[in-house]
Amino acid sequence: MSKPFDAPGYNRDGSIVNPEGRGEFTPGPQHGKARPAPGGPFLIGEAMTGGYSKSGPDILTGCTIAVDKGEIAVIVGPNGAGKSTAMRALFGMLYLSSGAVRLDGEDITDLAPQARVIKGMGFVPQTHNIFTSLTVEENLEMGGFIRKDDITETMQQVYDLFPILKEKRTQAAGELSGGQRQQVAVGRALMTRPKVLMLDEPTAGVSPIVMDELFDRIIDVARTGLPVLMVEQNARQALEIADKGYVLVQGANAHTGTGKELLADPDVRASFLGG
Ligand SMILES: Nc1ncnc2c1ncn2[C@@H]1O[C@H](COP(=O)(O)OP(=O)(O)O)[C@@H](O)[C@H]1O
Ligand SMILES: [Mg+2]
């Protein structure tokens, strides 16, 4: 009897199939339920301590990050400070040995990342944040996949925010410029109609003009009432638009204040803003 693998062009290596039809499932760091936790900021990761594996080193040590409704909160700090790690911790991708994450009156510390998306977290990671081989529109559709209702209106809103994406909607996202790709990534996150938007270095690798444009669009988004938490390398510009700023150093809070306060703080200026 001929097996499908005997057909020309097929991979004869059986290792790519799983004849048993079952496998090991290793749950991620979190796989539990949300619990009521009324009060406090809209999103907060409080006193988060943890790392990328249960037995590995702690990357975050007592780190607290929060954003409230109507605010833009910005995380700045040197390379390797743990900014992306803090975002991942909020999103449920870290093993926390202590601390808690609360969103909109619920303790979500035990929720898996996909459950947090359903609860309203829109997260744009620092890298690999778009599907390069899919068109712009397909990327947006992927963003809307968790929704059961009609996504056309939201897609139109994304196109209103980023008109270039409408123009390029049938083009592969990988063919776009850096700034346009970031718009796709932000648009994809907005398609879920999140309650909070988390952006890890949305302006990485773009020109100053494109950076200003992206910041303007992010301000537009925040003005609609959507809280925005973002990590930024362009510390000075980011703090200028920040209601709240966090300077992280070695996985811990070094300075916290309004954007204005941090910009005026001599220590922050000397150490992180080039004087
Ligand atoms: N996937 C990972 N696994 C293990 N360690 C990691 C991983 N990602 C980052 N780290 C470590 O965590 C620390 C903080 O990194 P990161 O959060 O990426 O810094 P930042 O975003 O502030 O530049 C670094 O020491 C880095 O080596
Ligand atoms: Mg980072």
Verbal overview:
- The protein is of the alpha/beta class and 275 residues long.
- The protein is 31% helix and 22% strand.
- It has helices spanning 83-90, 113-119, 136-143, 152-161, 163-167, 178-190, 208-223, 235-240, 259-264, 266-272, and strands at residues 35-36, 43-51, 60-67, 72-76, 95-103, 106-107, 121-124, 196-200, 228-231, 244-249, 252-257.
- Strands 7-8-9-4-10-11 form a 6-stranded mixed sheet, with helices on both faces. The protein has a 5-stranded antiparallel sheet with strand order 1-6-5-2-3, covered by helices on one side.
- Helix 3 packs parallel to helix 6 (178-190).
- The mean pLDDT is 92.
- The structure holds adenosine-5'-diphosphate and magnesium ion.
- Residues 52, 59, 77, 79-85 line the site of adenosine-5'-diphosphate.
